[in-house]
């Protein structure tokens, strides 16, 4: 018998080895998407998720944003119990109802929008912020209802309205029900304006689709964070449609400011002071 056909003299352990657990260092560091610097995560959070090396604005959790920008302990959440349904029985690679269930469990959020009432510099505001981590911040019937209630609440309280938008647009899993929210939210703004209070719209990265094409662009004052992607269709879709190369920086905050589409660009560290100034002047 050839030597290579003989049984090995060293016993082979056929038992499956346990997978290594998560490293103790996992999650302590973050890599900047712009300058590739490695940053201690606590340092990044200390700077409101803005890179201390290149000033790149990283995604910021909606609840952390509200807790930081609003006066301490002033935020009171409303409509937390509202949950989206599956009116169309939609299914792609996964059933919509299953996608909602798993996303709720992972994020501990019922949908892609947090709304309530708070204060900035002592000025009362009806405020809402998109949770982009929840299905790309897409707007379904519940998100549209919560946005509408932001304006209705502001009208009842005779205070200003403030919305932080970060969304991929209307939620395709709800079809026409999601598209109807564009008209619904715009009508709510029209009613709110009869009270002569300002609506401040803050556009974050990204703000696109049906959200950009409705209430996000209807602010009395429109602010944006640096280098945020803002527009209806994405640059790639536009290029494929018109068969032309788009200008450098197209649909970014700086491009929109240059062309008069927004009022100003505000660095995140200056946003609270800017909002307080606007509310003091108009609110």
UniProtKB/TrEMBL annotation:
Binding site for Zn(2+): 32, 35, 51, 54
Annotated pathway: Lipid metabolism; malonyl-CoA biosynthesis; malonyl-CoA from acetyl-CoA: step 1/1
Cofactor(s) essential for the protein: Zn(2+)
Keyword terms of this UniProt record: ATP-binding, Cytoplasm, Fatty acid biosynthesis, Fatty acid metabolism, Lipid biosynthesis, Lipid metabolism, Metal-binding, Nucleotide-binding, Transferase, Zinc, Zinc-finger
UniProt-annotated stretches for the region Disordered: 1-25
Keyword Protein biosynthesis: no
PROSITE patterns reported in the protein's UniProt record: COA_CT_NTER
GO CC, any one term: acetyl-CoA carboxylase complex
InterPro entries noted in UniProt: AcCoA_carboxyl_beta, Acetyl_CoA_COase_Trfase_b_su, ClpP/crotonase-like_dom_sf, COA_CT_N, Znf-ACC
Zinc finger (C4-type) residue numbers: 32-54
Catalytic EC class: transferase
Domain CoA carboxyltransferase N-terminal: 28-283
Keyword Transcription regulation annotated: no
Swiss-Prot/TrEMBL catalytic activity: N(6)-carboxybiotinyl-L-lysyl-[protein] + acetyl-CoA = N(6)-biotinyl-L-lysyl-[protein] + malonyl-CoA
Pfam families, per the entry: Carboxyl_trans (PF01039), Zn_ribbon_ACC (PF17848)
Cofactor binding note from Swiss-Prot or TrEMBL: Binds 1 zinc ion per subunit.
Main location: cytoplasm
Role noted for this protein: Component of the acetyl coenzyme A carboxylase (ACC) complex. Biotin carboxylase (BC) catalyzes the carboxylation of biotin on its carrier protein (BCCP) and then the CO(2) group is transferred by the transcarboxylase to acetyl-CoA to form malonyl-CoA.
Family: Belongs to the AccD/PCCB family.
Classification via PANTHER family: ACETYL-COENZYME A CARBOXYLASE CARBOXYL TRANSFERASE SUBUNIT BETA, CHLOROPLASTIC
Annotated protein name in UniProt: Acetyl-coenzyme A carboxylase carboxyl transferase subunit beta
Species annotation: Myxococcus stipitatus (strain DSM 14675 / JCM 12634 / Mx s8)
Lineage, highest ranks first: Bacteria, Pseudomonadati, Myxococcota, Myxococcia, Myxococcales
Gene encoding the protein: accD
């Amino acid at each position: 018998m050839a030597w290579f056909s003989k049984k090995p003299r060293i016993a082979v352990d056929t038992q499956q080895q346990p997978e290594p657990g998560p490293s103790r260092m996992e999650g302590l560091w973050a890599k900047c998407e712009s300058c590739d610097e490695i940053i201690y995560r606590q340092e990044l959070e200390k700077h409101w998720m803005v890179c201390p090396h290149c000033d790149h604005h990283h995604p910021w959790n909606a609840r952390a944003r509200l807790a930081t920008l609003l006066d301490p302990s002033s935020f009171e959440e409303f409509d937390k119990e509202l949950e989206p349904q599956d009116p169309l029985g939609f299914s792609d690679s996964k059933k919509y109802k299953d996608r909602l269930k798993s996303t709720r469990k992972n994020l501990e959020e019922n949908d892609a929008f947090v709304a309530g009432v708070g204060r900035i510099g002592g000025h009362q505001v009806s405020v809402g912020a998109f949770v982009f981590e929840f299905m790309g911040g897409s707007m379904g019937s519940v998100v549209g209802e919560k946005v509408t209630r932001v304006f209705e609440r502001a009208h009842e309280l005779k205070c200003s309205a403030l919305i932080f938008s970060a969304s991929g647009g209307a939620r395709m899993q709800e079809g026409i029900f999601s598209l109807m929210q564009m008209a619904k939210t715009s009508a709510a703004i029209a009613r709110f304006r009869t009270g002569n209070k300002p609506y401040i719209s803050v556009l974050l990265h990204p703000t696109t689709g049906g959200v950009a094409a409705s209430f996000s662009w209807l602010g009395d004052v429109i602010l944006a964070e640096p280098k945020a992607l803002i527009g209806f269709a994405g640059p790639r879709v536009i290029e494929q449609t018109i068969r032309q190369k788009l200008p450098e920086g197209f649909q970014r905050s700086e491009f929109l400011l240059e062309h008069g589409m927004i009022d100003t660009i505000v660095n995140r560290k200056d946003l609270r002071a800017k909002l307080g100034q606007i509310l003091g002047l108009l609110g």
